[in-house]
Design a protein that fits this description.
With 236 residues, this protein is an alpha/beta fold. The protein is 41% helix and 21% strand. The protein has a 5-stranded parallel beta sheet, with helices on both faces. A 4-stranded antiparallel beta sheet has the order 6-7-8-9, covered by helices on one side. Helix 6 crosses helix 7 and helix 7 crosses helix 8. It starts with 6 loop residues before the first strand and ends in an 8-residue tail after the last strand. The protein binds calcium ion. Calcium ion binds next to loops.
Length: 236
């Protein structure tokens, strides 16, 4: 498909990582601009238009956290947050600041490319009319008809379970924190209700016949929340 190259802003203060990541992104056909500190990231962002931002959390001058906040004030551009340690706190901070995804260092450049592609694809479909049916082969979610089919048989879901499933399944691979799911599915914002999401997920899994120890669709992201994975299908 001939289309204009997507522009990526890479914010990373470690030169070796910057060079490797840039090389991989360019090889994959992206146009990359690099900056090494938070202040420059904001300046660059104000000057140019980007399709996606890869943002390190620990940066000189202005932290990735503050950069993310500043960008989110004016833009919905997809952001992948890169955090240095496997701290659950950091991941949640990143997602709650409005980052779309996160990567933990050290990460493989191939993993980053996969996330970039997925996020750009998602950003693209979000601007198109809403999908009426999500078809994952054995699992089909008919959003307008409010129907879910597993292996051809209709499954009876409650309104909350249906909302939970469609929220997760619209963006396969995206991690949702429990708090996000509480807001999206239940429509309120109260910490005590995070466990409610766990119960809904448990019921939904039972109804879909999805084994949590060997999931087909619904994955637990330990200490964070949940994500939906579309099984490998044709066209991906
Ligand atoms: Ca850093």
């Amino acid at each position: 498909m001939a289309s204009e190259a997507k522009k990526i802003l890479l914010v990373e203060d470690e030169k070796t990582i910057r060079d490797v990541v840039t090389a991989y992104l360019e090889k994959d056909g992206y146009l990359v601009r690099c900056v090494g500190d938070g202040q420059s990231a904001i300046e660059e962002f104000e000057k140019y238009t980007f399709d996606l931002i890869v943002l390190d959390l620990m940066l000189p001058k202005l932290s990735g956290e503050r950069v993310c906040r500043a960008i989110r004030d004016t833009s919905d551009v997809p952001i992948i947050m890169v955090t240095a340690k496997d701290g659950i706190e950091d991941r949640i901070v990143g997602l709650e600041l409005g980052a779309d995804d996160y990567l933990i260092k050290p990460f493989s450049p191939r993993e980053l490319i996969a996330r970039v592609r997925a996020l750009l694809r998602r950003a693209h479909t979000e601007s198109e009319p809403a999908l009426e049916t999500l078809d994952f082969g054995d699992l089909v979610v008919d959003i307008s008809g409010h129907k879910v089919m597993v292996e051809g048989k209709e499954v009876d879901l409650t309104a909350s379970e249906f909302k939970l499933l469609t929220t997760l399944a619209r963006y396969p691979g995206r991690v949702y924190t429990r708090m996000e799911l509480v807001e999206k599915v239940l429509g309120y914002d109260f910490e005590g209700y995070e466990r409610t999401i766990d119960s809904h997920v448990k019921n939904l899994r039972a109804k879909l016949g999805d084994d949590p120890r060997n999931p087909r669709w619904l994955y637990t992201v330990h200490g964070v929340g949940y994500r939906f994975e579309a099984p490998a299908t044709a066209g991906e």
